[in-house]
């Protein structure tokens, strides 16, 4: 149980109902728990799903009290859909890192032609000084032949910023994922890590 | 009461999973519930344990009655429900305080501050006071498990049902929980006749009423030394009295402060509260929703501040608690940006979508009910004019009809789901028949309780444990209570559905139209291999937007510039065209009949092979 640098953190997962957000936050929670952290994760079920905005709060540390992250206190945001990456802006701060799946899913006011999908969504984050890490997880998942692996790619991307070893995630995958999906999920996880490493190289 | 809580290992559980675990470890033998967010997973997880009986009841009143009956027979029993469900169950609840129990009885209420998935945010701590029943309230999953075991012990020791309150941020939070093994039960199962205790005739009830006061006296004394009512001493400038998830927000916002945490929110430890208040300079009560603790603290003559600072509605969080108490708001937070909202929507292929389009054409007042179909109230369908509580659609429609008399004929229609109809719609329909109404009722039968996550119900012929059961025949049921005009239609056939509705709404007699088609998210529907795929021929699309009016997530409007329009050969003024997203289309074909230009056709290309 090795703990590295950061001793506590706040991660927000957001996106659209049906994208596997709850599973991604679950796998991350298990990995953090394995690494010896106290973990609390908050989510909402029921009516909030059904294609609506979905958000999960994950907090880890020596001892975690509140299950909710307070405004301005998110360390890392994992946005499963581009537009959703700015919906929780009041929760972010200038030091926040935001991983954005560049996939677009049209919300109903856009799909019905009442409103338009905003252009340069990620610019809204960048011009506030927030570090943005765009990942085309949908395309990468399609390359792996499993579009449902989007969430594991994003978990892989997130893992780069967490103070735990990648083996903790592989342990969780082997314990929690059905055997026939283990390989593709492990690949997706590594793909996500690689994407972030590449972005970090570029920015150096 | 001594803790006999042997702990085996730590696991990550949601509050609801932990409640189920606690019930199991407490040796529960009978569990009954009606699904409702945020309570649903409690019964679903109890049902996964061996050695006990678990069921979905038709409604919460029945659930409490079943649990109480099990308690009469000397076994530990639990009923669980969402906050508004306790309103339905209030009748047996209040009198169960008089009868008391044999086997431990715990009634769980899952409240929903912020109304994430509810029609109101009532604070069910008030039920504990009103019904004179002790109430425990955990702060997180670990406490949820431990408090369940305490609740059963309390119930048997004090001969009382125990209320157990959770909220969304306890039920749907995952945290580390220490789990243990099943403990021994104290009571022996079997029939034992105790009419003076269980027959609540006035003569018996008056005696039990006095006993109830004596019991509350004993519970108040117990509250003073109950280890889960505890003081965490810190800085004595500010002293906080709090419970439930609010305790966690206080610890986060004021880690140095002194805190009196109430694990039992009713009855109150009066001396403990007074002693705590004497030691600190200023007392603050932090609680979500009503000033429940605050009013009782004030009634003791203890000066405190609560709702004059803390909002009386919605959820709290550490920031709200800190800024409300200190009066200091942060000015460095990012402002939200204006982006399109993303409301929940009926799924692609949902059989409820077309029916609301058909109903809209009638121009009637649509008296709605509770389920996925309530989402049809949102734009663009905007197909519902009222929605109050489970089963209200029929009574509301009938009331409108009686208020307006003959004038109402053809102008009102009630819509209700299959599970909701069984829950409490049937009694409304009996009123319509008995009192000679002409209400038209549409039962949206999608073969499941969809909104809460596809629980089986009495019309599906399946139990919570996956066993087959008798299927309640809705048509036969309606006929049996005296409805002569009962029809079943496939709601995906918009024209046939509209025709029958048009005819029935104008009939001066009551009628029931059952729109029967399975929810497309049911496993057997997801696995369909023969799902057709539709596409829109851009050359036929005139941009009239008729297909967009049903709000199907699979149909997208593609705006075009003037240049693009010219290139595409569009007529003047055509600002775009509609497109079907092949990933989302479920092949229901409801949109096909809406298009007057035959632009929506079967896609037989390679992409259709899925």
Task: Walk me through this protein's architecture.
- The complex is a heterodimer of chains A (204) and B (610).
- The longest helix of chain A is centred in the last third of the chain and has 25 residues, at 179-203.
- Chain A has helices at residues 21-34, 108-111, 121-126, 137-143, 150-159, 166-176, 179-203, and strands at 9-16, 38-42, 53-61, 76-79, 97-101, 131-135.
- Chain A is globular.
- Chain A has a 6-stranded mixed sheet with strand order 2-3-1-4-5-6.
- By secondary structure, chain A is an alpha/beta fold.
- Chain B is α/β, with parallel strands linked by helices and 610 residues long.
- Chain B folds into 4 domains: 7-222, Rossmann fold, CATH 3.40.50; 229-326, Rossmann fold, CATH 3.40.50.920; 351-526, Rossmann fold (3-Layer(aba) Sandwich); 534-608, Alpha-Beta Plaits.
- In chain B, the strands form 6 sheets. A 7-stranded mixed sheet of chain B has the order 3-2-4-5-7-6-12.
- In chain B, strand 17, helix 19 (494-505) and strand 18 form a beta-alpha-beta unit.
- The model of chain B has no long low-confidence stretch (mean pLDDT 95).
- At the A-B interface, helix 1, strand 2 and helix 2 of A face strand 8, helix 11 and strand 20 of B.
- Strand 2 (38-42) of chain A pairs antiparallel with strand 8 of chain B, so a sheet runs across the interface.
